[in-house]
Structure formats: structure tokens, C-alpha cells
Amino acid sequence: MAQHARFHLVYDGPALVQHQMDVRALAPALLAMGDLVERANELFNGSHAKVSVNVHASFKSGSFGIDLELAQSLWQRALDFANSNPVTGILSIVGLLGIGKTTCIGMVQAIVWLRGRGVKRIEPISDGVVRLYVDEEHLDVEERVLQLLQDYRIRRALEGVIADPLSKEGIDTVAVVDQKAQQVLISIDRTQAAYFKAPNPEEETLQTDEYVTTLQVLTLAFQDGNKWRFTEGGGNTYFAVVLDEEFLSRVHLNQEQFAKDDIIKARIKRIQRLTKDGLKADYEVLEVLEHRSASPKVQLRMNFGGNEERKPPGP
To answer: Rounded to whole angstroms, how far apart are CA atoms 3 and 72?
Structure first.
């Protein structure tokens, strides 16, 4: 059993008078719409349900229809019922996004209300509803709408659907239309495009740890913050800031001869951060404990006592 939601996404302006749209503007917008709905479904349903975005072939009057479909198995429905974990249907998802018929304020409507202003305070006011405060104004939205507003991937996809096309010459308006009801659900013009630019996400430090390991030096640097390039072997290569001032001083004064590919045993600090591009890690060399040349030693077998029997020469 599947649930369906269907609407028309309309781009309008002088460039579309002939009911044609540059594929370089259209294709990214369609892909962004797919990313938008799929990410919202992932936020609310995880792996419990999948959603597919299909484009109907009829492009009339400068508009095109997008068929959104949420399909889930009966077995998954049984699991959801047993675990009291209901799936958020596609009709609810497009309503929360603000691109479908709903009696509640969706994400798109909240962004228009914010007008690029920062939220000063968020206050829970009832079960599943929060109040957003901006200056002397406030707006009540579902917690799930707030979740969408705060998700960078959602905001970046929405930018691709609205702000990016409106930046193209000759496209002045983006609208979502319910053709069956002959109703315009949302309409965004060029003057509002900046509201839909994705804000820069806040970087979050997830973990900081220290450990002792053996490193091989690939690149030495005594400028730009003393960032050296190391490898732990096995393809794990990274840059790290060397903070051991005593070690650096010995190297500068030629009290310690150092060369590329040398080996050090060091105490390392690793800081893992969640950024808009995913998980990142920064490394610092806090203390160099040992240093040796990378040149392997040859094991010599020597007989100084003369006690070992000499084997007779071969024939």
C-alpha cells in the first residue's frame, strides 16, 4: 500500500513566456526537490519508509507536475504498530515542508515570516508545539517544522528549489499549485529569494581525545602554524600542528637532526567536528616522546669468540 501526494511546481517569468525552461536551471531544481523530500522522510521515518519523486511528462503553460510517492511494506506497518512508532506519511511531510495542503504553518511559511531574521528564543508551549521569538514577534510551529528549519541538508535542498532558480535571469516567481483544487499553496517572488539561502551551519565538536602513537613524517613545515603531514600507516594520512615547543627548538638549533620519512612516537590530540561537509578531524602533536631515523637497521651476525665451528666449503 502506498500514499501519494501530487502538486505542480511552477516557475514563472519572462524567460518562460514560450513555456520553455533552461535545462541548466530545471535539472538542479528537480534534483533539489527530490533531495528535499527524501531528507524530510529520512528525518521523520529513518529507514522505516522510502519515498520516490517522479516527474510527469506534461509540461503545460510553463509548469510541470511532480508526483511524490511514499511506499512502505505491510510488514513494516506491522512493526510500527507493535512498537508504537507510526510512520509520518507523505501528505504530512509535504504539509510540514509547507508545499502541501495543511492547516498548520509549514517550513516555507515560517521562513517567509522570519524574513532572514535570527530567532532569539525558542520556547515549548504545548505537546509538540514550540514558539519562535524574533524581536517583539512570535510564531508557533510544530517541533517537526523546527527540526526541518534547523537541518542544513533540508535548507540547502530548499535553496536549490527556490533561491537558485530565482537567481536566474528571467525567472521571477516560484509557486506550488494544487491543480485539483485550483489553489496556489505558496508563491515566492524574487524579492524573497534571499530568505531561502541556507544559513551557514554551526560546527559541533563531537569528541576530543588524546592518545600515544607512532607516526612517519611525510612533510615538514616551519611556517603556517607548523602543520606537518604524517601517516600512521594503512593509508591514514593527515596534517597536524606540532605544539611541542622544546622539540621544535631542538630542530631549529640543529640539536636534533630531522628528515622526511623519520619516525616519531608522540602524544596526539584529536578533535572531531561535525560540519556542513560531514565529519572532520583536527590533529595536534602535543609532545614528541621519541625520534628515530626511518632507515631500517641491518642485523649483523658476528663471531668474536671463534667458538663457532666453521662449515667446510662446499664442493
So the answer is: 9
CA distance 117 to 135: 9
Whether the per-residue pLDDT at 63 is higher than 70: the answer is no
Q: Which of 17, 2, 106, 6 is nearest to 64 (CA)?
A: 6
With contact defined as beta carbons under 8 Å apart, do 140 and 125 qualify?
Answer: yes
Question: CA-to-CA distance for 36 and 305, rounded, in angstroms?
Answer: 81
Give the pLDDT confidence of 238-274 residue by residue, as tens digits. 999 999 999 988 888 888 877 778 899 999 999 999 8
Distance CA 32, CA 276 (A): 17
Whether the Cβ atoms of residue 171 and residue 25 lie closer than 8 Å to each other: yes
Buried b (16+ CB within 10 A) or exposed e, 35-57: bbbbbbbbbbbeebbebebeeee
Cβ(195)–Cβ(112) under 8 Å? yes
| Cell, residue 5 | 501526494
Between 300 and 23, the higher pLDDT residue: 23
Enter the C-alpha cell of residue 233: 600507516
**CA neighbours closer than 13 Å in the CB half-sphere of residue 112:** 16
Q: Which residues contact 177 (CB under 8 A, 6 or more apart)?
A: 7, 8, 10, 63, 183, 184, 185
pLDDT at 135 exceeding the cut of 80: yes
pTM of this structure: 0.68
221 Cβ contact list (under 8 Å, min separation 6)? 227, 228, 229
